[in-house]
Amino acid sequence: MRQPILAVLCLAGAAGLAGCQNSADESVERAFQGVNALDGVGLSDVMLQSADPDEAVRYFQRSLGQEPARIDFQRGLAQSLIRAKRNTEGVAAWEKVAAHPQASHEDRVELADALIRTGDWARAQATLAAVPPTYETFKRYRLEAMIADSNEDWAKADSFYEIAVGMTTTPANVLNNWGFSKLTRGANAEAERLFTDAIRHDGTLFTAKNNLMLARAGQGNYTLPPIPMSQQERAELLHTVGLAAVKRGDIALGRGLMEDALQTHPQHFEAAARSLDALGQAR
For the whole prediction, is pTM greater than 0.85? Predict the structure, then answer.
């Protein structure tokens, strides 16, 4: 009796294996649908916040292949493309979101942001103009300030920057942007104050430190201020202020600052070495 039973079991196993092989693609598809079902417990948020941007793009593209009308997946794709610095594709994705029946004012603000990233300032301005003025968020005002800057409407830019700073608990980047706006206008003292404020809020923001050197050099002040900096940052800031000194005609002082930068850097500082070589050839 055992042999027939064993034969039946083997046949059943073989049939099951064949069935598994034949339906492999379907199984993967069902598994992926099951993954999408987890979205309710925050899988999309995980992909947006911690996943590799290109991996997130692929996830949301697959998700939209299953449910193309879901605006949350459309938003996820648009956000992931911007995170991956694929800005042109990001604009197209945000345009699709903004055209969705369930689109919000925030979606149109995000579209304006994407347009700015591609340098399309006119369309960004028109997009924000279509958002009701009663919709007031930090990002909306930060973008309005940047657009006003691009139009050299300084009064409006200052007003929007001031509002934006008051609407966030982490204003370092917007203070740096505002300071750079002042720097381009030649308002070096005001720029210095804003860059200093930015560094006070975020001591790791190197762009603000570098911009601070430019603002101080623009006033003829080539000393490094008492701000947090690593040895490498100190060398790079000495190089920046040295270049600024040379540009202002203080050649000897600039050369000395670059030599300090070369000696301060914990490794070979190629940029400072090239600058010194250029100065030597220009004698």
Answer: no
